[in-house]
Amino acid sequence: MPTLLAVPNVSVAGDAEVLGRFHEAFGRAARILDVHTDADHGRSVFTLAGESGGLAESLLAGAEEAVEAIDMSSYAGAHPAIGALDVCPIVWLREEDRGAARTEAVAVATQIGGIGVPVFLYGELAREPGRAERAYFRNGGLAELWLRMDGGELRPDFGPSVPHRRGGATLVTARPPLAAFNVELEGADLDTARAVAAALREAGGGAPGVRAIGLVLSSGRAQVSTNVHDPLTTPLGAVVEEVRRLAAPLGARPVEAELVGLIPAGALVDYPADVPIRGFDPARHVIERRLAAPSG
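User: That's the sequence. What structure does it adopt?
Assistant: Structure tokens below.
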């Protein structure tokens, strides 16, 4: 059976006891490769590896834990979110495993819907083109999602017709590896970060597959937070250089970066030395090397 990855994002950070419970749940029938938690974003991202069936078991256990441990009515993270288990992609590493990933994603979505959490399929599993982007569901936050669902405008692919009282809703897809990659700016405020993000993302005329938002962290430093959907075609070095180009006329420059989760080795081609990735360790954060390492 093929090895697949899953990258469940839970809307909590900074609570060691709760994160320990998620670690136990997600590790039930899968190998945990990485955990990235960010208090500013209000988010923790787990990277799991496993076979078909085992991943679904672990993700369902995590979804059940999420509705017990997280109350979305008090969510205050900077990252847009509509659910306790906010997003749950299944990731294929080889093109021949694409079908297996799609099948596993639909199985996961069905099971999460069965515990009373509405599930929306996005990306290439979206049943209508307009539902492909996560922003379609997240715009306006959970309060707006409640109104759209309660009024009948928006119906889930699985589960109940309104959000879970505590857990909100979950987004599920199948996809190849992407890079969740954040670039921090010196000499920038929130408006600058948002302007750079707007020009960087595909919707603003930037590179295909790049999604970006501008934030200010609790440290006071501005950040351009991105998802790079094809980091082999658009490697992280190219993202940094484009941020550099866009920020320069605004009096800002990239000084440090952050990787959330794991990336394929090819994403690091021609990466610039003057914008270090904080805490980056190739043995831990490159997919090929992490999978080859012993468990533990």
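The first helix runs from residue 16 to 26.
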